[in-house]
From TrEMBL:
This is Bifunctional salicylyl-CoA 5-hydroxylase/oxidoreductase. Gene3D superfamilies: 3.30.9.20, Aldolase class I, FAD/NAD(P)-binding domain. Residues 396-732 form the NADH:flavin oxidoreductase/NADH oxidase N-terminal domain. Residues 748-769 are annotated as: Disordered. InterPro entries: Aldolase_TIM, FAD-bd, FAD/NAD-bd_sf, OxRdtase_FMN_N, YqjM-like. It comes from the Bacteria. Residues 126-328 form the FAD-binding domain. PANTHER family: BLR3436 PROTEIN, NADPH DEHYDROGENASE C23G7.10C-RELATED. Pfam families: FAD_binding_3 (PF01494), Oxidored_FMN (PF00724).
Length: 793
């Protein structure tokens, strides 16, 4: 093959070296606009997975890298004047300059032609003259720009400012310096990369950056390669304590905003993108160089394995895109955490450290316990102390007081519509469904959305509370839960609004009934989506009638014995659609500003609160974002939550979306938790109001991690309980927890021990037994440079 590579950074050079080894007959040319020694940046961090792939592909190059690594396992977090160390992480870093020299030498030996200080020929010319053109030209990729109509890039410029610096202070481990200044929170990410230096990245929110006066050079145009020396000098003074008398060095160091790059496609014809040209991930979870070299390895392998370019490039993108998108989700969570770090500086030090370490959701409580058990024990103890609890136990099995209601643990079975009622009456199915979940160990079991009138239903199979027959059937279910378990049971009340009069879920979710069974209403005559019925705009008389329906249903719910009531103001149902500017286009006092959009939902809340027994909590579920442009965002959610708290809500249940069919959610594990986190720290921390996290929380490890980091007070899980009705009890068994928070029904106690398997019964080799106590000896490994620095040949 005849291959053109645009960009002589690590990704481009590594790909060239790999392809030459696979077939020396490949004719490979690299263009790099900078000189060979124009290396920007300081250190590069690699993961074990990346290093394993490099070692398999090119042992000689991997060995040369390994001789230059700084290795350590500790993270030091400097917070509130103290240093907190967490071990067992595992890092390997090296100088970016050394890495480039090794790759340049490798390419020379293999016969790759590299043109330095040379502008690349036009992309059209390269595409016509070469079999393959690889865009490895970074964030400002010329290849990507030349085919923007095909690659369709999106560039998300973030809110923090950062500057990449170096220091001759050789850190012993990864360092997070968190500084409270008169202008706000600033942080430093630091790590060693050689015997002589460390990377020193200074980062802060743009608001802090401006208050601190760093914007005085904002309009300055620096020459290529030049640094913002005024800012560097200020950094030297501000972080003199962290530098401990050592120097800070600049290398093309200027204030930057991180830009997250995504592309709808990574290849077209014989053009393909790798590394930052295709995607970026925030430096707080790893190195862009690492991702670029992983891309290059996968691309070389796919080209070697497939007989033609198109199939090879398709296979490359299919292999790498899921990995990169997962990394970008984690990176997004991490960068947003650092953008919002000011929310967390009130936290107790151990919780703050745990919160920082688990910010991306890739590291969890169980990960940390495996790596550093002593730190995990400190986290558990600190959580118990902060909650005023005497017993140290897994966070999910710590009791919680919601208003005057005592919950034995912090697990909630989330409301899940079952579409199995007849004329709104819950039957035996609902008794078994909710009864089994209550016996399965959760602290609180929630009903599905119970509708307040026949025309408030989503489907003909939805349950209701507009008759005494329905009330009495619910009372039977409530009595079973109270008599047969130690769980509490909550009632969710709602009105379908414009999402009503639709088929049962398994017949066509959100599809209208064929005969348009009943009239739907909404704040404005806007359908939920294409094909949905156009609702009638509610009048003042309608609002009075609907409010009266909520009040009557709440009275019946209290008579049925429910322990808690949740008002459903989420998921695009009637009250949610009033809150959303996507669904509410009214021009009267119930539309327009957020204050006006809140008016009717708050009227309903106040009316229901007035008749709901004072000793029983009342909570609200909201959609924290609509996931569409011009819809509600997490900032609106803060205002919505604040309003309901001011009106007496005992908890805010934080969900998101389902307000319009046009939504584009950023799905992922625990993807809605950041919204709960923001509301908890910005709204409820001062009032003591509880926050409930919900949404793709799939494991007890996720639950414990969310609670221990202070992102929520309770966790609601839905599909997890459909998969395993006894999920909470099984989670206790997995964690070797026994106590009142997970008491097995007497009839089931014989099954409270996990059944043995061939693996659990296996006899471990004696050598493993003899060496079992050595497993924690390398939990805390610090970087100690060798006496003789390694040289680059």
């Amino acid at each position: 093959m005849k291959i053109a590579i645009v960009g002589g950074g690590p990704g481009g050079l590594y790909f060239a070296a790999l392809m030459k080894q696979l077939d020396p007959a490949h004719e490979i040319t690299v263009w790099e606009r900078n000189a060979p020694d124009d290396t920007f940046g300081f250190g590069v961090v690699f993961s074990d997975e990346t290093l394993g792939g490099i070692e398999n592909a090119d042992p000689e190059f991997a060995d040369a890298m390994a001789r230059r690594f700084a290795r350590w396992t500790d993270i030091d977090i400097h917070y509130r004047g103290r240093s907190h160390t967490i071990g067992g992480q595992g890092f390997a870093a090296m100088s970016r300059k050394d890495l480039l020299r090794l790759l340049q030498e490798r390419c020379r030996k293999l016969g790759v032609s590299v043109h330095y200080s040379t502008l690349t020929p036009p992309v059209d010319e390269l595409s016509a003259s070469y079999d393959l053109v690889v865009g490895a030209d970074g964030l400002n990729s010329q290849v990507r720009a030349a085919r923007a109509d095909v690659f369709r890039p999106s560039l998300d410029r973030r809110h923090n400012r950062y500057m990449w610096l170096g220091t001759d202070r050789v850190f012993e481990a990864f360092q997070f310096f968190v500084r409270q200044t008169e202008w706000g929170t600033m942080q430093v990410h630091g790590y060693p990369y050689s015997e002589t230096g460390s990377t020193f990245i200074v980062e802060m929110h743009e608001d802090v950056w401006r208050r601190a006066g760093f914007d005085d050079t904002e309009e300055t145009e620096f020459p290529p390669g030049a640094s913002d020396e005024r800012a560097v000098e200020r950094v030297r003074g501000l972080f003199a304590e962290e530098l401990a008398g050592h120097q800070v060095f600049a290398n093309n160091s200027k204030w930057l905003n991180f830009t997250t790059v995504r592309n709808e496609r990574w290849h077209h014809g014989n053009l393909v993108l790798v590394g930052d040209a295709a995607h970026t991930a925030h430096f707080s979870i790893g190195s862009g160089t690492k991702l670029a070299m992983e891309d290059s390895l996968a691309l070389a392998a796919c080209l070697h394995e497939h007989p033609d370019i198109e199939r090879a490039l398709t296979a490359y993108e299919a292999e790498r895109r899921p990995v990169v998108e997962s990394t970008q989700r984690a990176a997004q969570a991490s960068l947003e955490w650092f953008e919002n770090i000011g929310m967390y500086v009130h936290q107790e030090p151990t919780q703050f450290c745990f919160n920082l370490l688990t910010r991306s959701r890739r590291i969890t409580y169980d990960n940390l316990r495996t790596r550093d058990q002593e730190f995990a024990d400190r986290v558990d103890a600190a959580f118990a102390t902060s909650q005023g609890l005497a017993e140290v136990a897994p966070a999910m099995f710590q009791p919680f007081r919601l208003g005057e209601l005592e919950l034995k643990n912090r697990v909630i079975v989330s409301p899940m519509d079952m579409y199995s009622a007849v004329d709104g009456v819950p039957g035996d199915f609902h008794l078994v469904h909710l009864g089994s979940k209550a016996m399965g160990g959760a602290g609180l079991v929630m009903t599905e959305m119970v509708c307040v009138s026949p025309d408030a239903r989503i489907t003909p199979g939805c349950t209701g509370l507009w008759t005494e027959e329905q009330r009495d059937s619910w009372a039977r279910i409530v009595s079973f839960v109270h008599d047969r378990s130690t769980a509490r049971i909550g009632l969710q009340l709602g009105h379908s609004g414009r999402k009503g009069s639709t088929r049962l879920m398994w017949e066509g979710m959100d599809d209208p009934l064929p005969d348009g069974n009943w009239e739907t209403v909404g704040p404005s005559p806007l359908p939920y989506g294409p094909g949905s019925a156009v609702p009638r705009e509610v009048t003042r008389a309608d609002m009075d009638r609907i409010t009266a329906d909520f009040v009557a249903a709440a009275r019946r719910g209290a008579e049925a014995g429910f322990d808690l009531l949740e008002l459903h103001c989420a998921h695009g149902y009637l009250l949610s659609s009033f809150l959303s500017p996507v669904a509410n286009h009214r021009t009267d006092e119930y539309g327009g500003s957020l204050q006006n959009r809140l008016r009717f939902p708050l009227e309903v809340f106040d009316a229901v609160r007035a008749v709901w027994p004072a000793g029983r909590p009342m909570i609200v579920r909201i959609s924290a974002t609509d996931w569409v442009p011009d819809g509600n965002t997490e900032h609106d959610a803060v205002g919505i939550a604040r309003a309901f708290v001011a009106h007496g809500a005992d908890a805010i249940d934080v969900s998101s979306g389902q307000v319009t069919r046009d939504e584009d959610p950023a799905y992922g594990r625990s993807y809605q938790t950041p919204f709960a986190d923001r509301i908890r720290h910005e709204v409820t921390a001062a009032t003591g109001t509880a926050v409930i996290a919900v949404g793709a929380i799939a494991s007890y490890d996720d639950v414990n991690s969310i609670l221990l980091a202070g992102r929520a007070d309770l966790c609601a899980l839905g599909r997890t309980h459909l998969y395993d009705p006894h999920w909470t009890l099984h989670a206790a068994a997995e964690q070797d927890y026994r106590g009142a928070a997970s008491e097995w029904p007497v009839q089931y106690r014989a099954g409270s021990r996990k059944p043995p398997t061939s693996r659990t019964d296996a006899v471990r080799p004696r050598l493993s037994l003899l060496r079992a106590d050595d497993s924690d000896q390398n939990v805390h490994l610090r970087w100690t440079p060798p006496r003789e620095p390694a040289t680059v040949t």
